[in-house]
Amino acid sequence: MSDSNQPQDPASPLSLEALVQAVAAAITEAQARIDAAHLADLEQFIDENGRSRTLTVRLPGPDGEQVVDIPLLSFAAPTALRVTEATLAFEIDPAGLVLLGASVADLTPDGFAAHATVTPSAADGRRPATMTLRLEAIPAPAANT
Amino acid sequence: MSEPDPARQSRPLADLLADPLMAAHAARVEIAQATLDYIRTAGFEPTADGDALQARTVEFEFTRPAGPGPDGQILSEAVKMPIPLLAITEMSPQTIKDVLIDFALEITSVTPPDSDGGPAILSGLTHASDTIPPPGAAPRVHITLKAKDVGVSAGLTQMIQIMAHAIPHAPSRT
Question: Is pTM beyond 0.80 here?
């Protein structure tokens, strides 16, 4: 194993691209865990033979009482939780800020839209400025049905 | 020698983001289960033979006009109608619609991108977002994460529709 993947000192420079991609990857992984848990919950509504679990109920009807098997899913269908946005605010040294000619959009990983703002915290520019980076998760296009 | 405080141990950023989201998810599952239990107990009661549930009903009695009688007078008839309790009860399932996670992160290590082009991995310690870092402290990032309920997925919606259409065709076991 090469040393290139060994953790490095956080005080050493971290490129904006690496920061954005690391955060986006962490969001994607967190979302994958939520999705897996959501799928596992759905399995509780389906029995081992793949049939929907039901409540057997007797309902009054015009022709007398009838027995109906109602799928549990129709009572409380699980809804999905989705990460929509992450905002990161951190201090940067304005003296070390180099404009590379690359826009934030160039640094943005697939599936996200990024917006960045830099707010100077002092008029003399010697104190750290605050960079705010907003990552918006772009919803996957709906499948054609 | 004292054990390190687990709350102060550095953890991957994915864990720091996923844990509160998973807690919100678990809470949502419990709420859904409570809704199901409420429907089961408030809307239905066990039948005498115990093989099914019977809808709890309230009986409405009223009289209504039944047309003219032989002598021209308007007759009235008494009507009894059992109404399922669930049909007349306001039932709005509760859930957590929006999740907002806000914390400050002190970056403790950075694992560079791997050779396959995978992203860098950040590890860090969390802090209350209003604490002020001491001079010389490791870089700190304030993170706000928003998640929301996006409803039932398209596939599940379609499956529920298929099941809903199937119910009237189920053989009646009166």
Answer: no
> What residues of B are in contact with residue A127 (Cβ under 8 Å)?
none
All structural domains of chain B with their residue ranges: 10-169
**A42 closest CA partner among B153, B121, B67:** B153
Q: How would residue A8 be classed by pLDDT, with cut points 50, 70 and 90?
A: low
Residue range A24-43, pLDDT digits in tens: 888 989 999 999 999 998 88
Strands A81-92 and A129-137: antiparallel
Facing residue for B111 by CB, picked from A7, A11, A87: A7
Chain-chain contact of B122 with A59 (C-beta, under 8 angstroms): no
Q: What is the ipTM of this complex?
A: 0.75
The span from the CA of B113 to the CA of B120, in Å, is 4
Taking all residues of chain B, what is their mean pLDDT, rounded to a whole number?
80
Chain B partners within 8 Å of A54 (Cβ): none
User: Would you say A83 and A93 are in contact if contact means Cβ atoms under 8 Å apart?
Assistant: no
pLDDT tens digits along A88-118: 888 776 665 554 445 555 666 777 888 878 7
The conformation of residue B10, written as its DSSP 8-state character, comes to -
Q: Which residues of B touch A37 (CB under 8 A)?
A: 22, 25
Those of residues 33-92 in A touching chain B at CB distance below 8 A are 33-34, 37-38, 41-42, 52, 55-60, 63-91
